[in-house]
Amino acid sequence: MLRADERTDPRSHCMSDKVPYLDLPAQLRRIRPEIDAALARTLDNCTFCLGPDVAQFEKDFARFCGAEHCVGFNSGTSALHVAMILAGVGPGDEVITTPHTFVATSWAICYVGARPVYVDIEEATCNLNPALVERAITPRTKAILPVHLYGHPFDVEPIRDICRRHNLKLIEDACQAHGARYKGRVVGTFGEMACFSFYPGKNLGAAGEGGALVTNDAALAARARALREHGSTRRYYHDEIGFNYRMEGFQGAVLGVKLKYLDEWTRARRRVAHRYHELLADTPLQLPREAPWAESAYHLYVVRHPRRDELKAHLEANGIGCALHYPLALHMQKCFAHLGYRPGDFPVAEKAARECLSLPIYPELTEAQQQRVVDVIRDFFRR
Ligand SMILES: *Cc1c(COP(=O)(O)O)cnc(C)c1O
Predict the structure, then answer these.
(1) Atom of ligand 1 nearest to the CA of 176
(2) Closest ligand 1 atom, CA of 77?
(3) What pLDDT was estimated at residue 1?
(4) I want to staple 170 with a disulfide (CB 3.0 to 4.6 A). Which of 76, 191, 257, 298 is the partner?
């Protein structure tokens, strides 16, 4: 179930001047017969936990990422948690990560008793700034967990070099970046492990919760499989303390259908993004830009402006859905007060939190809808 603020207003379909922030029904309409058949098969077979559809999806998604192994999970958060365990991160350890992301990136670090150590982001991409990483390393640093935020890859090579120099593990949070490319290569195999989310609103979304851990290391994949299933490889024999983090059969079935469309959907997202680039070029908005080495999967299209709150209110008053990713940097969250950070510690992240505004972007967004979004934005700057 989507959170209330993410659900599409059913009335939006009969109000032609309204543009929903996200339109999952439009995606479903196109593939409904295939989804129905896949769900019915799972129901007939009663393969509800893991099962053949999950196994097939794991094979297909590993191939999609150019990776040897994919292990399906019940969420991206679970996959990140297990990745931290597999990276050997434990109590008292530090993991370098970004303060400008969905909170689950930091949860994974906290779940194993380690401490998130934040490093400020780059202005252009809102991703971890490689130039600032090295000075945050201490003898307790075990790993770096950057995010391919908004679908735009982080700057892999300098961060990977730092990991090699300091003997740190690199784990990619690829939860927003299915199919994004860094120097022509799909994300997911740049570190020891990468984690993906199939939350319904993600570029590849389940009909519920889902996630995956991707790796080229057979031993890590085998241990990930055991950890997601109560720490066992043989039923009722438990080699280590594990979890119930299995992917559901229904989700494997749905994801298997949708994966076939993912490349097409990513191309459509990129077309929408490029149209926004053109249509908004002469407005006062700061637009997202791809680094020369990047092909973003455009999970989100995030513009920036100092009068963000007014603009958001204006869009909403005119029936345009929009959202904030993310309005409060992680080092300023109440749950992380014990980490002892202060306002001003990460000025670029704090400014991004104040100025970011996510516009509607999805493969089914029509040119007319997009024009409507742009018209309302232009109207705001004219007043
Ligand atoms: C969605 C997301 C997660 C968590 O994934 P879930 O499947 O919702 O648990 C983690 N990190 C980032 C960057 C995300 O966008």
Answers:
(1) 15
(2) 9
(3) 42
(4) 191
Same domain, 11 and 39: no
- Give distance in angstroms: CA of 375 to centre of ligand 1: 32
Q: What is the pLDDT of residue 16?
A: 55
What per-residue confidence (pLDDT) applies to 17? 86
Which parts of the chain register pLDDT below 70? 1-16
Give me the pLDDT at residue 14, please.
39
197 alpha carbon – ligand 1 mean position (Å): 5
Regarding whether 227 and 100 lie in a shared domain, the answer is yes
Last residue of a domain, one of 212, 227, 258: 258
Ligand 1 pocket member 105 (CB < 6 A): yes
The structure's pTM equals 0.95
Domain holding 319, by residue range, is 4-23+261-382
What is the pLDDT at residue 383?
Answer: 84
Number of domains the chain is built from: 2
Q: Could you tell me the distance, in angstroms and rounded to a whole number, from the CA of residue 315 to the centre of ligand 1?
A: 26
- pLDDT value, residue 3: 55
Out of 105, 110, 171, mutate this one to test ligand 1's pocket (max ligand atoms within 8 Å of CB): namely 105
283: region left, alpha or beta (phi > 0 left; psi from -120 to 50 alpha):
beta
Distances in Å between the alpha carbon of 361 and those of 19, 196, 272?
A: 10, 20, 7
3-state SS record for 126-158: CCECHHHCHHHCCCCEEEEECECHHHCCCCHHH
